[in-house]
Amino acid sequence: MELFQLVYISKITPGLRRQDIKSIMASSHRNNHREGLTGLLFLDRNYFLQFLEGDRNTLSRAIGRIWGVSRHQDMTLVDFRQTEGRQLAGWSTALIGSDAVTQALLLRHGGGEDYTPFTMPSEDLVNFTLDLVRYLSRGELTPQEG
Ligand SMILES: Cc1cc2nc3c(=O)[nH]c(=O)nc-3n(C[C@H](O)[C@H](O)[C@H](O)COP(=O)(O)O)c2cc1C
Predict the structure, then answer these.
(1) Does 100 map to a domain?
(2) 41-69: per-residue pLDDT in tens?
(3) How far apart are CA 86 and CA 17, in angstroms?
(4) 113 vs 37: CA distance, rounded Å
(5) Cα–chain-centroid distance for residue 84?
(6) Which CATH number belongs to the domain containing residue 37 in this structure?
(7) Structural domain total, the chain
(8) 34 CB within 6 A, ligand 1
(9) I want to staple 135 with a disulfide (CB 3.0 to 4.6 A). Which of 92, 106, 122, 141 is the partner?
(10) Are 94 and 29 in contact (CB under 8 A)?
(11) DSSP 121
(12) 36 lies in which domain range?
C-alpha cells in the first residue's frame, strides 16, 4: 500500500467545550481505527493542527469528513505527501495539548508565544508537526488521550 501523510490546521469555533473535544475524539477513534488511519491532534488555545497517515483515498475521504464539522473553521490543508513508513502506528488519534514541551518545539520552528499557524510558513508547520510526531513516538510527549 502506498502510504501518505497530511497536515491541516483550523480555527477552533469559539465556545468549544470539553465535551466537544470528547465527541471529536470518540468518532475519530472509531473512524480511524476502521479505516487504518493513524495520527495526532494538537490542540492549542485557538487552533487545531492534525497529522494523519494512511492510504491516499482513505485520507482524502477523511478530509471531506472533517471539512464541514462546525466545531472548527477555516480548515486549511498545509501538506499532503507520500511517505515511506507509518510513524504513529500505535495511535488512532493522539490528543496533544499545548505545554512547555510543545511550546519549546514551536519556538524552534519560528512560532511564538501567540501561536499563529495561519501566518507560519508551511515548511515550518510541517517540521513542527514532524517533531510532535517524533516526540510522541519516542514517549517524550504524553498524550491527553490515545
Ligand atoms: C479538529 C477535528 C479533528 C477531527 N479528526 C477526525 C479524524 O481524525 N478522523 C475522523 O474520522 N473524523 C475526524 N473529525 C470529525 C469528527 O470525528 C466527527 O465527524 C465530528 O466531530 C462530528 O461528530 P458527531 O457526529 O459525533 O458530533 C474531526 C473533527 C474535528 C473538528
Answers:
(1) yes
(2) 999 989 999 999 999 999 999 999 999 99
(3) 32
(4) 31
(5) 19
(6) 3.30.70.100
(7) 1
(8) no
(9) 141
(10) no
(11) -
(12) 3-137
